[in-house]
Description:
By secondary structure, the chain is α/β, with parallel strands linked by helices. The protein folds into 3 domains: 2-237, Glutamine Phosphoribosylpyrophosphate, subunit 1, domain 1; 247-450, Glucose-6-phosphate isomerase like protein, domain 1 (Rossmann fold, 3-Layer(aba) Sandwich), CATH 3.40.50; 451-596, 3-Layer(aba) Sandwich (Rossmann fold), CATH 3.40.50. α7 (260-268) packs antiparallel against α14 and α13 packs antiparallel against α14. The N and C termini lie close together (11 Å). The model has no long low-confidence stretch (mean pLDDT 93). 2-deoxy-2-amino glucitol-6-phosphate (AGP) is lined by residues 302-305, 349-351, 354, 357, 400-402, 489, 605-606.
Amino acid sequence: MCGIVGYIGKRDALGILMDGLHRLEYRGYDSAGVAVVDGDLTVTRASGKIAELEKKVSQITHHGTTGIAHTRWATHGPPVEKNAHPHRDCSGRLAIVHNGIIENHAELRRDLQAKGHVISSETDSEILAHLIENEMKTQGDLSTALRFAVRRVRGTYGVAVVSMDEPGTICVARLGSPIVIGVGDGEMFVASDASAIMRYTTRVIYLDDGEMATLEAGNYRIRSLDNLPVAKEITEIEWSEEDVQKNGQPHFMLKEMLEQSEVLRNTMRGRLDADNGTAILGGLKDASERLRELDRITIVACGSAYYAGLVGKYMLEEYAGISVTVELASEFRYRKPVLTNTTAVIAVSQSGETADTLAAVKEAKMKGILTLGIVNTVGSTIARETDFGVYNHAGPEIGVASTKAFISQCVVFALLTLFLGRQRQLSLVMGKRIVEELKRLPELVDRILDGRELVRDVAEKYSDVTSMIFLGRKYCSPIAYEGALKLKEITYIHAEGYAAGEMKHGPIALVCPELPSVVLCPKDSVYEKTKSNIEELRARGGKIIAVTTEENDEVHEFAEDVIEIPKTLEMLTPILAVIPLQFFSYYTSVKKGIDPDKPRNLAKSVTVE
Ligand code: AGP
């Protein structure tokens, strides 16, 4: 959740660090700080937005070429200056920035205080600075001191440390929180994700858990926590810098919604085999025979990724004939799930760093279960922890509310359904039919994007409501849940997503003229049933916003507002039906004066429990 940036080289560190913080602001932004080794060690911190830090940094007169910086999303201690990173040790000669949670911070704090350390903040992270200081007394160099210090930690960390005593060095270590190293020409960079440094270098190295690195201006060494050298390959970032810009739109979220047809083309590029009515998934090639033996799939994910998993469940059961359960990763990791050697666990994650989902993967691997990843962020931890996987190729998703990644995840499930289905009973004819319809999807998405002004009118009409219900059946029930989540997270309006058939089992007691319902009612196999649910709502004065298939004229008789989507296969309809709901929430958020990219209390990647 926090952002880390570091630089060591020939240029002034401060400018590079502040630029990096701005690019990481979406990850967590309630305080920030920088530390620069400049003959001295200058640490500058501020609570609030990066702009507050900018004001202080502008007063700095002496500069250096080594430094680290941090944006914080509070986990321990309120977002005030004293809790902001970087944290110093007692001597004031070293400073650290940390992303993660130190679970045994209380016992470490007591132990350090008993040794005379004065710990000034309420954070768990500051402990690291004092642990390293303590180890420096016996180990002598920063890298060894860091290695011994993190060995005492239980929890997760992505940590960077600088010291006045070693001005030409930055040491970093990672366990559970991402660390990427940027390889420049006579300079090195470090960050919690590549978007912070990609304008300076696209050559990066992703540290794995239990690895640490010592960076110097023109050199780097990577070792394990057992102090064994580790060979790592340099990866070329596939995203260009403008990918992470807004392309002239007011918000990342709008930019990312508007690129959804291109995203689907990228997700499917090279993966549709029209002749054989199947999908070509290079990341699963070596798992093909193990996948043929599967008789169960367990999908683990959080938030929107979980709802994409629910869509995948319907697809895989209907067309691949495989039994599927979808589990909230935060629950799965503490349950005793019954898994067999013909089960596969599929982790779905845009960031590839969600702590709960990563833990669920590790739990499955502990049991020897085959793990697959559907991940958007190349080189992310979940992508590297799972045995095999499929990248979304949706490009970086900066807006906190997931949009393009969500529909890309649904399309990957359609591709996976084709692949697994054609290994089983899915016919060539039906496989071809699905392939052809997938090819049409981007143009259908463009038609919905072109009609977004109508959605904005509807959204603005309801922007003052205090609560809403989203309803759907079968393939559209996950979209009801996703639509409610979108509204909650970027407009702060209470919303509930429900399987439409469930309303009569209690929630219909809520229905009244002040409670509008968004009902997903495309002309699909359960349309008549959903229509009955709508009548039940209307009988109690409920107002209906219907999302339905084009040319479904009768719907105007029972809905106050109608939003149309193009007709497609029932299994692909959720991919279209969700888009108006994304725009509905976006325009409501903007109407209410909220920044949809940075909703309160949320961060883009939840890398803590
Ligand atoms: C979705 O709009 C939310 N931002 C959140 O629910 C998100 O989907 C969830 O935290 C999972 O993130 P991931 O896909 O990066 O694992």
